[in-house]
Write the structure tokens for this entry.
Amino acid sequence: MRIEQQKIDQYNEGLLSRHNNQFVFLKEQLGEQGIDANKIVDALEAFQVAIPSWALGTGGTRFGRFSGGGEPRSLEEKIEDVGLLHGLNRSSGSISLHIPWDIPSNAGDVMNLASSFDLKFDAVNSNTFQDQKDQELSYKFGSLSHVDPKVRKQAVDHNIEVIKYGKDLGSKALSVWLSDGSCFPGQSNFVKSFQNTLESLQEIYAALPDDWKVFVEYKAYEPNFYSTVIQDWGSSLLFCQKLGAKADVLVDLGHHLPNANIEQIVATLMMEGRLAGFHFNDSKYGDDDLTVGSIRPYMLFLIFVELVEGMKRAGKGSDGFAWMIDASHNVKDPLEDLLQSVEAILLSYAQALILDSKKLEIARAENDVVLAQQLLQNAFRTDVRPLVREAMRQSGGSLDPIGLFRNLKVRSELMNERGKVTVATGL
Ligand code: RM4
Ligand code: MN
Ligand code: MN
């Protein structure tokens, strides 16, 4: 299914005068503070968030999975779904593939289909946290860190194969997330696990094309519950520093221990020039993979404050990083959920962009704690939705993506096309 531009324009028509009033009002307010709303709209338009191929179906937990119907049955249908999202918000211009869940059978055809929706291929993800059918050796006790060199070799070869698939699609990075670790004290030797992993990663690193990067993602725990080889940003950074300049740290918001100060982690990684990008999601307890901004929007804003600051310092635009949503949708329509997540990301970015950072610096220098807090909260409490809507409208998207999705009955159309009982590959 494709949404015609005319349908988007028509729907926008009905919302336009209300939107214009709100936008003009906000523009004036911001103008009084010396902020050019149009510049912020431009920055928002440029911010593109990748959609992972495994997030287009209904997710599940270890207790069960309740499929929603009309889920994509193939890679082609997944591309079509991301195309729908991008058509609606013009902010989801790329797809990130998980191999072997989504092996492209013909790279040329898949690329043509993607570009017909104006989509590119973001980082490719390897998978050594599951055993696949016909796989010779098991990853039950680890992959790149395994005690047996034959298992390590199998995992290294898989990663090199993933790079090849990505190369054919124009991807420029490999994302590695390892579940390697141990469930019980004494089960594994921390130092040997680290060294094995490093050697394996070095072999993968050596196979990277010149213009590629490898993203090293960390996670505190789960599926292993006692130790994880790449457990935190420090371990991840250590691997990256030992690997070389083409390795950067990937932050997944759900992969920290409770109450971790993620914004400070972001600031440090950006200071070192080693932040690869983000896997956005939200959580209350663990790696809950909930809709971005649904639980801790203030934290997300504080993270964006550091991102904006770090980008300015490094003289880089938002296209210098890999932004992706890594969420699971157990009770919502996956496409609606993704639209909500993208909107939440852009709202936080907009709030961070309107922060008066010069005044904040002065407040900090004068130890004016009250003013510092007030400046942050002024930005956070400003209703920036008209800026995000305007960015979507100007780039040809909808003023109200979810409203239009429902108005056009996209899900029931997909159910008619694909059937009521379809299950997409993924977790
Ligand atoms: C992991 C991690 C990875 C993702 C898998 C599916 O928890 O976040 O990024 O590839 O889930
Ligand atoms: Mn992730
Ligand atoms: Mn995760």
Q: What stands out?
A: The first helix runs from residue 5 to 32.
